[in-house]
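DM from R.C. (forwarded with permission)

"hey, sorry to bug you on a friday — could you get me a structure for this? deadline for the figure draft is monday and I only need the backbone to look sensible"
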Amino acid sequence: MTGPAPGPPELFTWEFATDPYPAYAWLREHAPVRRTTLPSGVEAWLVTRYADAREALADGRLSKNPVHHGGSSQARGKTGIPGERSADLMTHLLNIDPPDHTRLRRLVSKAFTPRRVAEFAPRVQELTDRFIDGFAPRGEADLIHEFAFPLPIYAICDLLGVPPEDQDDFRDWAGMMIRHGGGPRGGVARSVKRMRAYLVELIHRKRGDLGDDLISGLIRAGDHGEHLTENEAAAMAFILLFAGFETTVNLIGNGVHTLLRHPAQRQQLQESLARGESDLMETAVEELLRYDGPVELATWRYATCPLTIGGQPVAAGDPVLVVLAAADRDPARFDAPETVDLARRDNPHLGYGHGIHYCLGAPLARLEARAALATLLTRLPDLRLAVDPGDLRWRGGLIMRGLRTLPVTFTQRPPQGK
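My reply, with the result:
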């Protein structure tokens, strides 16, 4: 005789942050569209099944614009990216709907064409080798702070056109933004305001000296009658920086962590790389995105009218959060979803979203992840965790999933070319 089914799991605790997947499995089975009170006090619907998630991500009745949030002004102030509201940085791709979204996305998409991303590959490899050179002779490193974090921040700064002498400031501001409450009180909002002030000043500077970078491209678009305001340009540069580095920090960090916890899969990948092959690395990055991806919940959506998601009525004005991490382990869509299979071919994961808000920077993030993982595994083949896996700590925060630190050891190696 079996006992009663366990009750709802406790969400958003430190234990949950370490391993949210059992709780998401319970939600998928028992309450796939569930109204939940978030740590901020805001109530929102969590969508956890793959089919419902994919449908919700493409549903035009779910707006990205916080103006549609039916809660109080205080509740509306607790959604979105910390600090963006007070810094007047709301008019970016994650907060707007068509037609403005269509117009701005068309402008920015020119920076992420396959040709532009391919041209950027040598710079990504140069950065990758430089950061590994910095710690390879020591035989130990924190792969978050010394590798996964600086690589995408300097890469996106190059893409935006931030001068080299200013990029360390961006690293400091970005570091504060991803602490999610781990820094001084008000530190995130101050960093966002400083970043905005700098971006506005940089836009003014670049007007007299346009280059081939993304900010120059935004300025040209505005000058050619595309109706891009200065505030839109600053907000667009901000969200590309924010979304373009934190997701990649987590993709690299979570990816290395997964490989270290699955040695047989890692060995197959290393053997493939040693043979000069690239196919397994390409499917490996997709599997790492699915299995423990960098974005746990898709960014906020708001019902513009009464609708039904997964059989659950949702009222107009209600916030909806699609749980990508839960959808991507749904056994109704993926065979053996709890198993890491780097060669998985049938893998339509939602790691970078779906629909018109699919991540614009996904090609660049994939390029960075492939370069980072391939170079690490090749240059430091005996890489191993320096602590017990249970001692690792995950950053707090609602949307992103990433490690605070990732201490590793390996055989000391000289810098490349020495």
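R.C.: lifesaver. The longest strand covers residues 33-37.
me: no worries. The CA atoms of residues 258 and 288 lie 7 Å apart.
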